[in-house]
Each structure stands twice: as structure tokens, then as C-alpha cells.
Amino acid sequence: xxxxVWAVDITYIKMGKKHMYLTAIIDWFSRYIVxxxxxxxxxxxxxxxxxxxxxxxxxxxxxxxxxxGSQFTSKEYxxxxxxxxxxxxxxxxxxxxxxxxxxxxFRSLKCECIYISEFDSPKALCNGISNYIDxxxxxxxxxxxxxxxxxxxxxxxxxxxRLHTIGSALRSLRSLWADPIDHRSxxxxxxxxxxx
Length: 196
Description:
41% of the residues lie in helices and 18% in strands. It has helices at residues 44-58, 75-83, 100-114, 122-139, 150-158, 160-166, 188-195, and strands spanning 5-15, 18-27, 33-39, 63-66, 87-90. The relative contact order is 0.15. Residues 160-196 have low confidence and may be disordered.
């Protein structure tokens, strides 16, 4: 079921002589990217921003898994999870395989988008990531769900009767993803309800 376990992690993306840091949150069941944020620092604030936006759009997971990075062991992060009844799960030291779902997704993003593109600004990088996630969530069949897209697997089990009434119409919905820049913010759930 969606929203049982989410994984969150940060990866760096080299841009010229500096780095940008991508925080991504994925639903383990559906492989749906529920939220992401891009920052030029490794501060906890960026992680909390992504998590709060994910919670506002998709509710709260029962468990969230991460590595043992300082952002995920910070007082602010732990307190936010506690206040919202989210159980924290952490990888063992040097055990990236514990969070393999998000690690594999980062690898795919970098190989299919980042490494083959020359993003010349944070805005261009942000747009590239947004387009990749939109395609990943809404137009890429996933073998774990019999060829369904992550958005279909995520929404079908959250609200089966509504999804059944629109059948394959979900396949044609585009731009369901709201990127971390507020100028295009619309939630998947809001768009889904408008289609019913």
C-alpha cells in the first residue's frame, strides 16, 4: 500500500566547480516520487521543506527510511517526525542497500538525465529534473506493477473506486508532478479529483 514506507535521501550533482544537492522522497510500494527539492547547501532545511510539501500533498507515511546523514539525525528532523507520528527507520552504517530503492532511482536519474545533459544553471537543472520526474512518474511503465506507471500504482490503491471509473484515462494525464518551484504547484490528488 502507498504511504506505508517512504525513503528519503540526498545526492549531489556537480555543476561546474560547485555542487547542487537533490533531496528526493519515494514511495516504496509504488516507486512514485512524492516530492523533491534542489538546494545549493546540505542543510536540514531543504530536507524538511521537501518532506513538509510531500506531507501537505500526500499525507503522512507510517515509516520513513533514510541513511544516517546529519540531516536525518538532526533535532529538527527527528522532532518533525515525532510531532507527526512518522516512525523513523535508518540504514545500518555503510549499508546503502537498505535504501536501495531511492539509490537505484538516483542512479537512473543521473545516467538518463544528468550525465547526458549540460545544465548551465540551477534553474536549467531544476527544469531538467522536473521533466525527468514527470516522465518517470507518469509515462514510464514499471515492472513491479505489471507495466503500470508509478502514478497509477500510487493512486489506484489510495482510491480504487475513482481510479476504476476513469480507467486508462490516467495514462493520458500529463504534468501531474508539481516541481519544487511554486509557480507550477498543483497536487496529483487535486488533478486526479478534477478528472473524475
